[in-house]
Structures are given as structure tokens and as C-alpha cells.
């Protein structure tokens, strides 16, 4: 039986810590914030104590676990989420980019409801919905051919296997700090223990032009190079144009397949980050919001590579997956891209994101806070040296205490943020809420000036 975290009535001394204050050490401020957290979220605590009986740690997605226990969300509407404890937050987690459309976009709701009613589920067949979404994504992201998967992880898995099959080579170059899915994670200079194909990765330094060139051109037997144009798990560390162009050029030079992971970055422009950076990947992997909020993934690109999946050929590779073409994702994704996230909306949203990031950056001067990102994807860091430009996770000397305190206190202000400091914006988040966040971040920096000042 796990120990109970339920607190008894607060003592007089404890009551004193029931308001946010800039007094005391970082550890004391965190302890006080934690006590307030426990007090504000009793229903979540109860649910957590039940959840740990059937799931390890009460969780099935490591990234969203938080200590001392997670807040349980009950519902979401538009840009907000409401917890089981009755607290409503402006959602700045945005399902790590997948909730671009928010929680109740009317056109997507209609598409889902009418699909359930009029189409029915699990048709065990090819459908018009599938072709229509495929054609739209091919034209939007300049892909010759596309295939759907269940997730971004699977999209990368298949893209890599396609590259290996096509080239007859074995190794894959990836980059430090990269994340390509649950079994493709390179938070440091080697794959995590749960990554697949442990021995076939060559890990090069992200944003290091010379190292990318050396590793891609000098390692031999390279089937693919897999890279993100902006590293989501950075959080939001932007790839430089020189670096990305070098990756593409070196991959071409050695006949490796250049795979651009746009699972997160495709939302940064109508045609994804490749359009912004003038890249022409051989294969692109996609996911998240492109299924309209339903589980989704896709990979596509050059016709000659994708043709290996042509089931009309006896030499083809099989690519199966029960839910690859699930009608809900196909319908919701199609409506989301054709009617909601049109090219004009994509440009506008990313401009709004750039402005929001700049306002936060303006607050960060002289503090340990650093704000990175591009368009609607923003990263807030608290760093011991306050370094303002980050080219790699290696340059990040995290101030873990400040990071944690920020998360606790932003939540108290009504902002649902990810502990990592990753902020992907949701369409339709009111400008007043973004402005309120900027103000509250400023207040946080002032309130804890002794801890946040450089
Ligand atoms: N690639 C990138 C860049 C991602 O950010 C993610 C998910 N965070 C994935 C792949 C994996 O996608 P999924 O979670 O849908 O498997």
C-alpha cells in the first residue's frame, strides 16, 4: 500500500505559507507551494491513490506525471481545462502540440459526431475519408505519397525501416536532445535504454554543423538521417538554418534518406518548418494535431521510396496497423486542416506566437529566465547562468528549483503549464489570457527577485 499524502488540518505555522511570497529560500518556497498544491487538489489526490492500484505510479504517460501527485483533469472546453478539483485553467500544455484546435472546436466536433452517426466505426476497409485526408496532406506538405500510422512514434519507425530497406544500409544518424517517440529518445548523446535498435544509432551534436557533416559523411553505412527542425523536448530549441541545410546536404552526399521529423513543427507554417527553412526532405514524418485531436501519425515523401509499400507489387514491404485509417482521425484531421488550420490561420497564429514569445523575452533580461522557440511553440527555461541563446540541451544549466516553483505558482494563477516549460499555444486562446500570463510571469520574476535575478 502506497503511503497516503493526505494532510491533516494545517497548523498556524503552515497557514503562514498559504500565500505566495518571495521570502525564504527556494526550498522553502517550493515546500510552501507544494503544501498549497496538496490543499487545492484533494480530489486529484484521492484519484491518484486509486490509480496507483492499477497503473505503475498511477500513470500511463511518463511525461505528464508530476509530484507529489498529478492533477486529474475532468474536462476541457475551447482553450481551457477543468480539474476534478473544480479549478479551471488556461491550457498552455496543449497536449504537447496535438491540441492545437483546443478541446471543443465546433467543426471538429461536428465532423466526429457525424462520422460516428453516418459512417460508423471500424469498417475494415479503405475509405474515401482516408484518400481525401491523404491528398490534402500531400498537397500541404509537398509529399508525393503518404501513409498513415497510429502515432508519431510509428511514423518514425516506418520511415526508418523504409530508408533501411530502400538503401540497403543499416545505421541512422540522430542528434543529441532529439525525441522521435516513445522508443526513439536521445536526451543525451546516446539512446535511452528503451530505444529500439540500440546499436544502429550514430548520435551527432544538434546545431553543430561540423559534427553533423563529420558523422553523416564519415560513419559509413548510413541509411537515414533523422532530425527535428526545432527540438520539442529542448524545450523548444531551434535548429539553425546552416545546421539543417548541412544535414540535408551531407545526407544527399552519402545517399542516405533525409527524414525530417515534423510531428511537432508542421504547425509552424502552412507547409511546416521545411517551408520556412527551404528544406526538401526525402521523407517527412507527421502526427499530433493533423488527426484533429484523434490518435494519428503519418509518413510520406518521395514516390520512389514510398512505392516500396505498394501492395500491388509482390516485392513490396508490408505496412499494417488496425487503426491506421481509423475513420475518426481521418475525418477530424481533414476538417481541421481544410477548414480550421488553413494556411492563413497558420501564418496568423505563428505571428501571434512570435509576439507572445518576444514579450516574455523582454521580461527575461537580467534574470535566470530564458525564452526560446518559434511561432506557436515556446520554451521557458530557468538557467543558473541565464544564457539567452540555446543551441543545444548541453548549454542548459537548469535551475531545477526555480523551474518547479514556476510551475506550481503559474498553476495557482490559473495556467496549466508543463513542468518542462514547454508551451505550445492553442488556437483561439484570448489575447487577454496571453497578456495575463506575461504579466504573471513578470510578477513571479519580481516576487522571487532574490532567486531569479542574475
Ligand atoms: N516526434 C516528435 C518530434 C515528437 O515530439 C513526438 C511526440 N512528442 C513524436 C515524434 C512521437 O509522437 P507520438 O507521441 O504520437 O508517438
UniProtKB/TrEMBL annotation:
InterPro entries: Aminotrans_3, PyrdxlP-dep_Trfase, PyrdxlP-dep_Trfase_major, PyrdxlP-dep_Trfase_small. It holds the Pfam family Aminotran_3. Keywords: Pyridoxal phosphate, Transferase. One of its GO terms (molecular function) is transaminase activity. It comes from the Eukaryota. Its cofactor is pyridoxal 5'-phosphate. Belongs to the class-III pyridoxal-phosphate-dependent aminotransferase family. This is Pyridoxal phosphate-dependent transferase. It comes from Lophiotrema nucula.
Amino acid at each position: 500500500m502506497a503511503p497516503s499524502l493526505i494532510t491533516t488540518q494545517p497548523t498556524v505555522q503552515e497557514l503562514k505559507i498559504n500565500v505566495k511570497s518571495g521570502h525564504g529560500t527556494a526550498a522553502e518556497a517550493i515546500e510552501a507551494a507544494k503544501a498549497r498544491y496538496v490543499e487545492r487538489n484533494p480530489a486529484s489526490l484521492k484519484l491518484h491513490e486509486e490509480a496507483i492500484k492499477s497503473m505503475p505510479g498511477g500513470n500511463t504517460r511518463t511525461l505528464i506525471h508530476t509530484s507529489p501527485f498529478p492533477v486529474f483533469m475532468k474536462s476541457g472546453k475551447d482553450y481551457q481545462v477543468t480539474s476534478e478539483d473544480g479549478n479551471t485553467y488556461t491550457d498552455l500544455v496543449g497536449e504537447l502540440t496535438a491540441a492545437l484546435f483546443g478541446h471543443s472546436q465546433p467543426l471538429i466536433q461536428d465532423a466526429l459526431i457525424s462520422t460516428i452517426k453516418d459512417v460508423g466505426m471500424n469498417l475494415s476497409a479503405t475509405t474515401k475519408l482516408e484518400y481525401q485526408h491523404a491528398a490534402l496532406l500531400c498537397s500541404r506538405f509537398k509529399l508525393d505519397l503518404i501513409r498513415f500510422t497510429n502515432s508519431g512514434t510509428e511514423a518514425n519507425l516506418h520511415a526508418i525501416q523504409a530508408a533501411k530497406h530502400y538503401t540497403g544500409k543499416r545505421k541512422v544518424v540522430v542528434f543529441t536532445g532529439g525525441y522521435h517517440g516513445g522508443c526513439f529518445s536521445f536526451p543525451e548523446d546516446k539512446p535511452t535504454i528503451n530505444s529500439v535498435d540500440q546499436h544502429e544509432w550514430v548520435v551527432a551534436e544538434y546545431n553543430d554543423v561540423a559534427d553533423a557533416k563529420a558523422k553523416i559523411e564519415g560513419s559509413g553505412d548510413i541509411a537515414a538521417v533523422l532530425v527535428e527542425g526545432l527540438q520539442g523536448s529542448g524545450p523548444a530549441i531551434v535548429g539553425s538554418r546552416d545546421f539543417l541545410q548541412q544535414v540535408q546536404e551531407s545526407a544527399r552526399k552519402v545517399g542516405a534518406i533525409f527524414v525530417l521529423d515534423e510531428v511537432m513543427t508542421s504547425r509552424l507554417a502552412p507547409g511546416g518548418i521545411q517551408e520556412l527553412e527551404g528544406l526538401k526532405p526525402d521523407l517527412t514524418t507527421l502526427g499530433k494535431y493533423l488527426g484533429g485531436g484523434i490518435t494519428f501519425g503519418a509518413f510520406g515523401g518521395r514516390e520512389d521510396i514510398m512505392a516500396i509499400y505498394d501492395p500491388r507489387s509482390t516485392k513490396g514491404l508490408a505496412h499494417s496497423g488496425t487503426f491506421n485509417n481509423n475513420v475518426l482521425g481521418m475525418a477530424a484531421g481533414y476538417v481541421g486542416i481544410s477548414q480550421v488550420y488553413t494556411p492563413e490561420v497558420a501564418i496568423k497564429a505563428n505571428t501571434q506566437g512570435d509576439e507572445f514569445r518576444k514579450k516574455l523575452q523582454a521580461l527575461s533580461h537580467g534574470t535566470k529566465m530564458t525564452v526560446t522557440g518559434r511561432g506557436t511553440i515556446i520554451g521557458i527555461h530557468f538557467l543558473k547562468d541565464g544564457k539567452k541563446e540555446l543551441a543545444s540541451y548541453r548549454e542548459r544549466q537548469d535551475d531545477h528549483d526555480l523551474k518547479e516553483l514556476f510551475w506550481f505558482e503559474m498553476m495557482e494563477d490559473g495556467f496549466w503549464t508543463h513542468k518542462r516549460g514547454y508551451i505550445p499555444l492553442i488556437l483561439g486562446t484570448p489575447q487577454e489570457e496571453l497578456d495575463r500570463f506575461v504579466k504573471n510571469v513578470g510578477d513571479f520574476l519580481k516576487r522571487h527577485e532574490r532567486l531569479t535575478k542574475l
